[in-house]
Write a structure and sequence with these properties.
2-enoyl-CoA Hydratase, Chain A, domain 1; alpha+beta; Pdz3 Domain; six-stranded mixed β-sheet
Amino acid sequence: MVNEKNSARKFKVWLPLLFSFVLVGGMIVGFNLKDTNQIIRITQEEFSSLTGKGGHGRVEELVRYIEAKYVDKIDGDELIESAINELLDDLDPHSNYINSKKLKEVNEQLEGNFEGVGIEFMMLEDTILVVNPIEDGPSIKAGILAGDKIISIEDTIIAGVNLETKDIIEKLRGEKGTKVRIGVRRDEQEEQKYFVVKREEIPLNSVDIGYMIDQHTGYIKINRFSANTYEEFMKELENLVESKGMKNLVMDVRQNPGGYLQEATKILSQLFNEKNKLLVYTKGRSIHRNDYETTGKNFFDVGKIAVLIDEGSASASEIVAGAIQDWDRGVIVGRRSFGKGLVQEQYKLKDGSALRLTVARYYTPSGRSIQKPYKNVDDYDMDRLERFENGEMESEDNIHLNDTTKFYTANGRVVYGGGGISPDIFVPMDTIVLNDFYLSVRDHIPQFAYRTYKKFENSLGKNLIEYSSSFQINDEIFQDLVDFAKLKGIKGQPSVITKCKPELKRALKARIARLAFKDEGYFAIWNQDDPVVNKALKALYDDELANRLGARN
């Protein structure tokens, strides 16, 4: 039986893996609670002046003495890294040290690409299954197809050895131009086929999808603000407006931890006709105020706007929501955002690691700082848990305001700062997503969905519309899923299974749609029963609300 009190598992669903950066010149807003940083560069000379002549300050002197004389052998570099982290822990939650390996991973997320073979894969039992080779990527060029099972990489057998995902990624990724030999088994053939794949630069998309959610409304999902987000966003927007006739827009930044500030402000500038309209500004004790304004050069006419946020929307996502809300340009729907409004300065160390230090705050057009209090770091980390325990996830009445200072939108509505962006329309969390049985079964849906997809591949419909209307996850398929879960050691009481049934069927149908119709299939099916999306659509068709919130100023 699944442990219903496994709270740590529950919070994985709604707590952000918070990656949060803001980049201005070299500035970032976003990424990983401790990596959530807006960045400015400083020079070696400036840093040296802080640590002593030539950078040899007291900390380094002590570490070198300890390294030379201590009774047991120690690693001086590890000791220095530990001392740096202890020092930064006494400042704020977003000043942090990032070692060179972690910095490379973070930069890949921000720059929007990595070097590898270009496949999307999943673990099917103990075998790597190629779900989708990236279009025009190196794997598909070499001949690898969706459905291939990877048996070996170079001379190493990897099938049946239960490798972790990170180990597989490490084997497949490598420098651009290098080659890797991959052995696959195709269909039911016993003999392996071998392909030599030349690694290339692979795009890491920050815009998941853009599609028409109804006759007049487009939907664009942004998962972070990387170096290519504006370009990706505009490509989707152009297609929706010019090819699909889009008039209104739903922009989904739920669970979006942030990224480059310029990408967020460039997107915002496309949503306002006016020139020199303030979008966000930054300032600090040693950093002068810097304003970011609209250019007045928007390429497409976008009508009414709804922005979807939740507790995982941070930093650059909050900048977008804050500007739209302060100017009454659209409606904000969902739950209160994370509350990250600090700016960091980055200093790159000689070993490839980096120091990020908080030097400023950013403010929405009305003057709000959305940064939540951080005097007590433990309380700061617990804020997300407290939101759940205090009932905020279920009721707007339970939202706790850290700052009751009133700010005013363009149309005179009162808004508050000091802890994220509160939505105009609150939508509670469905607590079924905190159920342990649901979470455990959901983890295995990708495997089961692939099996179901192969079983019904010829009867899913010719297109997404047919699939949506005709293919149903009936009770027989659902029972097969429950039985599949039992084989994985997941059991639930009949009442719990019944309670989770609608959401598990929804998740399974969406996952099958992705296999059959790619990302649009997944989001089209998933969004049909998404209460936040449905509330947003209802708001866009509410003339009174639209006049109050959606009119251009």
